[in-house]
Each structure stands twice: as C-alpha cells, then as structure tokens.
Design brief:
heterodimer; A: alpha/beta; Transcription Regulator spoIIAA; two-stranded parallel sheet; globular; B: alpha+beta; Heat Shock Protein 90; five-stranded antiparallel beta sheet
Chain lengths: 111, 144
C-alpha cells in the first residue's frame, strides 16, 4: 500500500495514498500502525483525505490500530474523511469509537 | 432476457487485487440504470461496497484464498431491481455466524464481522445458498 509518514513534533501522521482502503491493502496499514506503536509512538493521526472507498477490512485495520494504541496509553486519531467513507463509519457506529477531525491540523492540535 | 435488462458476467482469479476493478465496473454499471430518483453516487458507492464484501467472503472464506480458483460475478439490472450474485466453488461458510451487530457494545472493537452487517444494511435481501458445484451469495436491491 502507498502511504506517507510525516512527523509533526511528537505526532506522526500517516497519509494513506490510496483511493481504496480495502481487503487488498488493509493489512499493510494495520502492520504499519502496529510498528509505530511498538516503537513507542504515543500520538498517531491517520489522514484519509485521499481515500474515497473503505470496506469492512479497512475499518478493521483502523480498529486494530485503535486497540493497539489504547493498550499502550497511546492515541490514534483520524482526519479528513470523505463523505462516502464517513458514511461507512456511521453505518457501523465506529464514529462513536474514533476521534475524527475535519483536518489533519485539527487532529494534531487535539493531542 | 427481458426487455431493457442488463446482465453482466465476470470471472476473475480468486485474488483480492481484482476488488478495485470489479468495484469500478459495478459503479459504472449503475450509471446506466434508468429511472432511479435517489442519489446515484451514493447508490454506486453502496453497490461497490457490498460487492467488495461479497467477493472477499468468496475469496477468503469459501475458496480459502486459493489463487488458482475463480470467482464468478453476475450483475443483473431489471426494471425495478438490481441483483448481484457471487459464485464460489468452496465448501461455503456460515453466513449468519459471521455477523457482528455494531449496536452491541461488547463487539464494537472486534476487527472482523462487519461485512455481512454492511451487506444486510445496504441491500434489501442477502442470501447464501448451495449450487450444484459450490455456493452463491445473492444480494437484491429494489431501486424503484
């Protein structure tokens, strides 16, 4: 999967550079988030601005990252959800689980 | 075939790399639906999502990730209904056991099981039944 890591002070931003976050590429996002939290990162934002499609595997990878963060007193936040992606979070009630921000800057400021 | 009916049949290798292609084809096909009054972009996205979920079930659970297997997809658009069928050649899986209810807080952090919930929420009916050489997952949606 194509993604870009951007360090912003103590916050690591993972920009997903894919139009689809689905069963084909979700595992690599899950692995990357696992790696960041394993390395001791405490503040991570996943920026979904380029993603216009997400399926249950994509949602599952983010849930995995969320649980990984919670178990280490770290935090995972999401930013820049397109409308179709946001509607999948709402359908599966995951918008109540995640901290979701309109922009990546708002997510960074919220730590 | 009935008048004005569109039927599309696709066979792809049992690999997730084809999800994007099939999803795009289903979205394009919905642009051809006449007489739909709702938000077409949302309908296209929903059909893309449910077809992706059905394909992943076939690839991973029914055909057990065997890259030599083939998945067959048939999309039929008739006067008032969209029917999507995904055929596998595996031993099948228990569709209802795989479901997760997101309103049940005990399971809100499960990593798996949202696929069937998504299919059932966005379509009018979802059925999984045996065929003579495998199984078929059938999803129907009335659009007018």
């Amino acid at each position: 999967m194509n993604m870009k890591l951007e360090e912003n002070g103590k916050v690591m931003v993972v920009v997903v550079k894919e139009e689809r976050l689905d069963a084909h590429n979700a595992e690599s996002l899950k692995q990357e988030l696992g790696r960041l939290f394993n390395e001791g990162r405490s503040s991570v934002v996943v920026d979904l601005k380029e993603v216009r499609f997400i399926d249950s595997s994509g949602l599952g990878a983010l849930v995995s990252g969320f649980k990984n963060a919670s178990s280490r007193q770290a935090e995972l936040k999401l930013s820049s959800l397109q409308s179709q992606v946001k509607s999948m979070f709402e359908l599966t009630r995951l918008h109540r689980v995640f901290d979701i921000y309109q922009t990546v800057d708002e997510a960074i400021d919220a730590f | 075939m009935k008048k004005n009916q569109i039927e599309l049949e696709i066979r792809v290798p049992n690999q997730t790399r084809y999800l994007s292609l099939i999803g795009k084809i289903s979205e394009e096909l919905i642009a051809q639906v006449e007489g739909y009054v709702g938000d077409r972009e949302t309908l296209a996205n929903h059909l893309n999502v449910v077809l992706t979920e059905a394909l992943v079930n076939a690839i991973r659970h029914a055909n057990e990730n065997n890259p030599e297997e083939v998945v067959q997809i048939r999309i039929t658009i008739s006067d008032n209904e969209i029917l999507m069928q995904v055929f596998d050649h595996g031993r099948g899986f228990n569709l209802t056991r795989a479901a997760l209810n997101p309103n049940d807080n005990r399971h809100s952090l499960d990593e798996h099981g949202r696929g069937l919930f998504i299919m059932q929420s966005l379509m009018d009916s979802v059925e999984y039944r045996p065929t003579k050489d495998g199984n078929v997952l059938e999803m129907r949606k009335r659009y007018r």
